[in-house]
TrEMBL record:
Coiled coil: none annotated. It comes from the Bacteria. The keyword Amino-acid biosynthesis does not apply. The keyword S-adenosyl-L-methionine does not apply. This is HAD superfamily hydrolase (TIGR01509 family)/HAD superfamily hydrolase (TIGR01549 family). One of its GO terms (biological process) is small molecule metabolic process. Keywords: Hydrolase, Magnesium, Metal-binding.
Length: 258
């Protein structure tokens, strides 16, 4: 199967070879959320509604979205840990609605972040064939790993909840490389930990740019995971790279490696 190709695009294709290491994206690839993340944030707010006020919810989240977007773009430009920066986003949003005294804002922000971590970790389940695919790949001698964007405490909370540390060989969170996918340093860190050359590794994920194009730019093979079979036609319209393979279920990886 192939993605729809924009006739005006410059096409970059990487030939696939049998891999030694196979890495997976985390969210919406190996795992999925039980409820959407916006509803998770709403549940978090509800837990602090007495302090914040039900009437302030919309204004709080408007501020938080703006602050979080800026954080994502700049978090590695600062020495402060990303988690501390995110707590500061909560504190700024609390200040914006003027619901609690300034002396209480940071303490409340920390409590909200901790509650979000708890809710996030308990909101994930495996995609239906993810666990069996990981087990089958390891039984066949492949190095397996996760390359995921995000803050360590958020992503590792999910990974620990599902005991993924014992189901893959390597876990790489973008914060450890101080660079998000699709940027090369996070893929380089994964390759170093697995002790494999770029052409010996695959990255599998649902994001055309972050997972597929990012991996290919790092010299790896990029496998596009499209379980709905509805995104492949347009996902690469504005990206010069083309997926090495396209799959609609994770267990298809097993046949591709033969």
């Amino acid at each position: 199967m192939s993605a729809r190709i924009n006739p005006n695009a410059v096409i970059i294709v990487v030939n696939s070879v049998k891999p030694k290491a196979i890495f997976f994206d985390l969210d919406e690839t190996l795992i999925e959320n039980k409820i959407p993340v916006p509803k998770l944030f709403a549940r978090m707010y509800f837990d602090f509604e007495t302090s914040l006020g039900i009437e302030n919810q919309a204004a709080f989240f408007e501020s938080l979205r703006a602050n979080a977007a800026n954080l994502w773009a700049t978090m590695f430009e600062r020495d402060e840990a990303p988690e501390s920066q995110f707590v500061a986003c909560f504190a700024t949003s609390i200040a914006a609605i003027n619901a609690v005294p300034a002396t209480e804002q940071h303490t409340l922000a920390q409590a909200m972040f901790d509650r979000f971590l708890e809710l996030s970790a308990n909101n994930v389940v495996f995609h239906h064939d993810a666990l069996q695919t990981l087990q089958d790949l390891q039984s066949q001698g492949y190095i397996t790993g996760i390359i995921t964007n995000g803050m360590e405490r958020v992503q590792l909370g999910k990974i620990n909840k599902l005991d993924l540390y014992h189901k893959v060989d390597h876990v790489i969170v973008s914060a450890q490389a101080r660079a998000h996918k699709p940027h090369k340093p996070v893929f380089d860190l994964a390759l170093t930990r697995a002790n494999v050359a770029p052409h010996q590794a695959w990255q599998i994920g649902d994001h055309a740019l972050n997972d597929v194009a990012g991996a290919i730019r790092a010299g790896m093979s990029g496998v596009f995971y499209d379980p709905s079979q509805q995104r492949r036609e347009r996902a690469f319209d504005d990206i010069p790279e083309r997926p090495t393979h396209i799959i609609s279920s994770l267990n298809e990886v097993l046949s591709l490696t033969q």
